[in-house]
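Hi X.,

You mentioned you wanted examples for the new student's onboarding notes, showing what a folding record looks like when two proteins sit in one file. Here is a clean example. The first protein comes first, with its sequence line followed by its structure tokens.
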Amino acid sequence: MTLALYLHPLASFCHKVLLALYENNTPFEARIVDLMNSEEHARYLNVWQVGKIPVLRDETKNRTVPETSIIIEYLDQNYPGPVPLLPRDEPARLEARLWDRFYDLYVQVPLQKIVVDRLRPDNGHDPIGVAEARATLKTAYSMIENQMATRTWAIGSDFTMADCAAAPALFYAGIVEPFGNDHPHTTAYFERLIARPSMQRVLAEAQPYFSMFPYQDAMPARFRNAGATSNS
């Protein structure tokens, strides 16, 4: 197999790259990495010394490609499919990059702050940091609400890299900090995202691991139950 993706099925940043691969039916080998296993983690450092996932390995080109946005751009350049995830038009391309970074930095990062805090011992919690993270999410939701009032996908009528970033970010963020009734456009956008076959596949593969998610008690039953990712 030319391409191998080092990942974990529960990890939201891995979901982002999986969406890009599944949207274009790009052949690849999934290599699951358990970073909580010290021996496995140590071996993985030979692949990517930073120790983060996901990482794409292209054996044909002898390239190791880290960082989700770079991986998706690499796939778009070297293994293009019927769904161009970066628009060919330069202004639209820049817009896709902008909203890709927006979802990574202002949705993914604060939600991970909230999730990780729940894993800390009782004397190690950071209530101020968590409050700041929730405030950032609320600001992000407000911006997304305005953005999606007139759009189908993140930057317009076409599904792009920005939507690959948005889908897993909103999936987990909506659990730790629900959108609320005052964000109907955000909610509708989220429903469109999870209805895509690529996201349905990602969620089906993640479902066996949802019990490991620190906020799994707040996860809607339609996601916890296998095969129940429709609007129910």
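Then the second protein repeats the pattern, sequence line and then tokens:
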Amino acid sequence: METKRPAVRVRDYLPTALILMILGWGGLFFLINNTTPSGGTRWLFFFLGVIALTGSALPGVAFLNRRFPSTPPPTPSVIVRQAVWVGIYIPILLWLRIGRVVNLSLAILLAAGLILIEWLLRLRERSVWKPEQR
């Protein structure tokens, strides 16, 4: 009997992750060291933060999807979407920190909400009827 390898390979996502990390972290380094805080640079900070954290999370998300396979197997767009959820989470907490409204319960509720959205999206993908091909 031949065992099937999981469809997800972490190696396939490393170039994309590296590009996103270089653009995000490099941009954040330049932004923090060479600009003054203002409205435009604040939004650029959040944008670059999402890019940097998405690139940093992409190999980990791909590894988790390889380690814990699901039915149907995740497509590359699903893996990137899950990494984007991780990348969006921390900048949202930082944005809420500016107004001093973030606390532990809000952070947990926000994480639970993002996990629920992803679970519902995956549930929808699983429920779509696809006739068998012969």
